[in-house]
Write a structure and sequence with these properties.
mainly alpha
């Protein structure tokens, strides 16, 4: 066998990487349809096809990319768009904090690469291995496998969505699908009392805040929701 001719450390890296790929593949069942939706919606709101594809590499976050598409379609100033997308992606800081202790000994080139690949599904697939699996010098390859698999699946699904969207007549309005996508994301994201309170407060705050110019109401509502969620999170911990 080919693998038996490899050095032990090379075989270990390969096994960890492939294990990460296998752990991530089932999650692509939910990722691929979302990528298709973003590709179609990106064109529907007027984003050039090349920019839709490039954003999947630069932003690399499903919910934040949908926010980006919505703000682009509303001709929101770039500063507000960048800030809003950044706030949506703040959850990645929590993922980084959770895996930092397992990657402490890795050089910066590895930390930067894995930080880029560390998104929701990659974290969900890798954290159990990092936390509960055996401590080996190559366990970061497991996270690499989950991240690369997710990245490839997301890029291909977005590209397919762009190709599909280009075939849809321009007079077909798909803007309503953005709201439906956000509702689906919200429902799937609410797992505890603090999540429910954060969503409720943000929904209440956004209605009067939408009177603000340049879509600043989204930032205001997000700030209120995050503050409420952080406050209520302490009660979740007490109950647990």
């Amino acid at each position: 066998m080919l693998s038996s001719s490899l050095p032990l450390h090379a075989n270990s890296r390969q096994n960890e990487f492939l294990a990460g790929v296998r752990a991530e593949l089932p999650l692509l069942l939910g990722v691929v349809p979302f990528g298709l939706i973003f590709g179609v919606l990106g064109l529907a709101v007027g984003i050039p096809d090349w920019a839709v594809v490039v954003s999947s590499s630069l932003i690399f976050g499903g919910s934040s990319q949908v926010v980006f598409a919505q703000l682009w379609g509303a001709a929101t100033p770039a500063s507000v768009t960048v800030t809003t997308v950044g706030i949506v992606n703040l959850r990645h800081l929590l993922y980084s904090a959770a895996v930092a202790e397992y990657l402490r000994e890795q050089p910066w080139r590895w930390k930067l690469l894995l930080a880029y690949l560390l998104t929701d599904e990659a974290f969900a697939a890798a954290i159990k291995r990092l936390r509960d699996g055996p401590v080996t010098p190559h366990r970061h390859y497991f996270l690499l496998g989950t991240g690369v698999t997710l990245w490839v699946g997301w890029q291909l699904s977005t590209l397919t969505g762009v190709l599909m969207g280009a075939a849809i007549p321009g007079d077909w309005s798909l803007d309503f699908s953005i709201a439906l996508t956000f509702i689906a994301l919200l429902v799937l994201s609410v797992h505890g009392q603090s999540d429910a309170w954060a969503a409720t407060v943000a929904a209440i705050a956004v209605m009067p805040a939408m009177l603000l110019p340049h879509k600043l109401g989204l930032l205001v509502a997000a700030t209120f929701g995050i503050a409420c969620g952080l406050f209520m999170c302490r009660f979740d911990h007490k109950k647990g």
